[in-house]
Specification:
The chain has a single domain (about 25-135), classed as Four Helix Bundle (Hemerythrin (Met), subunit A) (Up-down Bundle). The chain is mainly alpha-helical. About 80% of the residues lie in helices and about 0% in strands. It is elongated.
Length: about 150
């Protein structure tokens, strides 16, 4: 009976680690299919974007897309390698170095997304920015990997 009590907490920790290592950044395939929220017709209408604004947003996205794609690809590969290290019981130094690489790449992805949004927001009028600020928390919330 003691063995059962030891196995279940260990299984929970390992499951959490797998979820953590697999991460929340979409794979390249998902990223490619994703529609940028500001390009959705309903949001364009709610914000009252002009054709010139929509064109500018698309240009910003296209300009930043290639480097973001490469960073996401590198992040995916680093996470895969980290996951393999966990399963192969790699030494601590190698594991720590790969974990640091994953953190660095994840930070780069987050920063690139924030900078892209920063560029997009400059295209908007103050009124449109305010509308976007009011809409964003409600319309774009996606539950995290542990949400039920």
């Amino acid at each position: 009976m003691t063995k059962v009590h030891v196995k279940w907490p260990l299984a929970g920790v390992l499951s959490g680690l797998v979820i953590l290592v697999s991460g929340a950044v979409p794979s390249e395939a998902h990223l490619g299919r994703r529609v940028v929220p500001i390009e959705r017709q309903a949001l364009r209408e709610e914000l009252g974007l002009t054709d010139d604004q929509v064109k500018a947003v698309r240009e910003i996205r296209a300009r930043n897309w290639q480097s973001m794609r490469e960073t996401v690809r590198a992040l995916r590969e680093a996470r895969r390698a980290l996951r393999e290290m966990v399963l192969a019981d790699a030494d601590e130094a190698t594991f720590s170095a790969k974990a640091a690489e994953v953190r660095e790449l994840a930070g780069q992805v987050l920063e690139a997304r924030a900078r892209t949004l920063q560029e997009v927001v400059r295209v908007l009028t103050p009124e449109q920015r305010e509308k976007l600020r009011d809409l964003r928390p409600f319309r774009h919330h996606r539950p995290g990997p542990l949400a039920g």
